[in-house]
Design goal:
By secondary structure, the chain is mostly helical. The chain is built from five helices and no strands. The chain has a domain of 68 residues: 434 Repressor (Amino-terminal Domain) (Orthogonal Bundle), CATH 1.10.260.40.
Length: 101
């Protein structure tokens, strides 16, 4: 049996699942309250943007948490993912995975 590697959850997805959805706040209102750009908050909540120390502090102030929690989540998420590449490597590329067999 092959071991399955699980990636750590992106902190933006945690923000969406455990803060936005249960509390029912709009991302635009959260962006305004945290003095972050609405585009950044949207991308963050979709897992397409990373949390930097400044953003972590602002998020923590609005949610009543610590900045360190958000930075730790980001660090763990980043460390659990393979490095980005320009394309599939010869070792991992399998045309059958893309229906090109």
């Amino acid at each position: 049996m092959r071991a399955v590697r699980r990636f750590r959850t992106h902190p933006g997805l945690i923000l969406r699942k455990f803060y936005k959805e249960p509390r029912g706040f709009a991302l635009g209102a959260f962006a305004q309250a945290s003095s972050l750009s609405p585009t950044y908050v949207e991308r963050l909540a979709d897992g397409r943007e990373s949390i930097n120390p400044k953003a972590a502090q602002r998020i923590a102030e609005v949610l009543g948490t610590t900045a360190q929690i958000w930075l730790n989540l980001q660090s763990q998420s980043t460390a659990s993912r393979p490095p980005a590449s320009d394309g599939p490597s010869r070792e991992t590329y399998d045309p059958a995975d893309r229906g090109q067999a």
